[in-house]
Amino acid sequence: MESNIQHGQTKQTLQQFAQHHRLKTRRDTSGEEIIAGHRKLMRKSQLPDRVEYCSHVLDGFEDHRLGVCLFYPTERCWNFARKQLVALGCMVRQDGDTEGVLTFDPASRTQTRAVLRAARIFPRRLSKEPSPGQLAARQAFATKRRSLTVETPAQDSTRYDQDGVFRPILSTQGVGLG
Length: 178
Hints:
The protein has a domain at 14-118: Aspartate Aminotransferase, domain 1, CATH 3.90.1150. Helix content is 26%, strand content 15%. It has four helices and six strands. The longest helix has 16 residues, at 132-147. Mean pLDDT is 79; it is low at 1-10.
């Protein structure tokens, strides 16, 4: 995924930001596009289980800035994260007891890394091409599975009674009983 937007350029949309940082965009219940974070930070509360009730990055602020909406379980966690982000140059838009909205410059690498960490948003992993050894192991496994046949009453009539019900032959070899 090669992106033509690099750090230092001024304008980035949410879609370009997500593509550049290998993030997944989703739509919330109102239809707005967001980049959702993990929900593990939220305590069990009266809030419904919706994507917008977890920390997320959103678009729509002036000066081509992106916003981050942070939800934390305690005031102490929120205050610590807010102070760290403000020290890096993020601007507070809304400040609640355990949640808030800040804006950040997507062209700033330090602000971007800190915001993604605070919102617990992780990039998607890139899968590597399998090695020749892995391909050979997969092929051997596939041929082994294809060579196994399903027993039918015609192939092994000793395991089936006259009604066609399967009766397994119990063996004690290899179990330690024989």
